[in-house]
User: What shape does this take?
Amino acid sequence: MTEQSDEAIARLHERARQQLRSPSHRFRCWQFEKELRPFQSDHPVMHSEALVMALLAGRKRAGRMRRTMAKLLQLRSKRGEMAAFRAFEGFLAEHAPEDALTGHNYDTVSFARQNHQEVWNHLSFLIKQLQPLSDGVFLNSGTLLGAVREGRLLDHDDDADLAFFLKSERPEDAAQEWRELQLKLFEIGLARIEDQIPGPGRIIKLVSCGSFEVDLFPAWKRNGKVFVYPHTFGKLTEAQVLPLQTCAATGLPLPAEPEAMLAVNYGAAWREPNPYFAFDWSRANRNFRRFLGALPEPKFKRVITYGTFDPMHYGHVRLLKRLSLLADEVIAACSTCAFNAGRGKQTALAFEHRVEMLEACKYVSKVIPEENWGQKAGDIRRLNADLLVMGSDWRGHFDDLKDLCTVLYLPRTEGISATALKAGAWPGAAA
Assistant: This one.
């Protein structure tokens, strides 16, 4: 290290500090990181502090910011400089958004500011709904850590974690079952398409009742060993996890030996609070590569749905948006006036006008006419659709088409319907 490099990193450190104190719109986080990079090896503490401040100031990459804080904590601890770390932590808390230091993103609301009982009640509801589908559902990861170590949710945490035992044993079969479970949860309303993380669906985002997310993780058993993505790769025996026990503090299910699972996940020091704990995702993804590699493509190629769209309303738009998240192409089959008349329905809008509205919707790739009840099988074959979506009120009516494609019945948007609109019952109108 030279005196020149010491001065350079000190100037960068001060720039980041000033940016956090008094943000300037001219500050470019990516450019600052580029200037900072040469000092990573020779000035690890100053580099880490400057990077954390820059990321916080720019509200960029919350995950990287937390990993850098974990590295900084480790560096200061090894040097016996914990007072300096706490002082820096205090400075950040004073100038950064509340909960930004430990949250999964910069808009998070930590459990310190939420009603814990409401969270536990919601988890209890979800577990009861999931249990008939699973070989066991239990508290997982940070939620398990809080329940066991502190008898409550971790104050710095902002999401709840559950694990779901699949019936499959091979990772390839587990991957397929996991995808089928996700679609099932969409159908029964325990998960929403728009809440999912883009990509192959390694975790499933369940519905929430508040300012927290609920993450569902896959688990399976094979040859007496237990696998829970992403933390437990056969390091626990089935007897260490099953049968599940009931948590004295929450009344919710835990592994038979929760301490053993926490040690695998967080290391031997899991009893010591560390809000900056950084999970080794790269190692986890290497361990679970067979499962991850077997996950089906995150999107279908082509989805088709049928409706009258008379008149088209925001419930239709939300449905079509969800379908665009499920498939690369969205085909909307719009029923003709003649078809509607044949089943005793009179449309308010002409077929051509309903088609015009559908074609104007950015989520729709193609519009075709629906002219009779029996055309769906032919449409699926002709258009090479691999997904058919209908409203949940049609559940079971089109199961005979499952030999041709995946069939999904989705809940309709609450509070709106074309029938009510035509009767003059507009959403939000005074009674």
The chain has a mean pLDDT of 92.
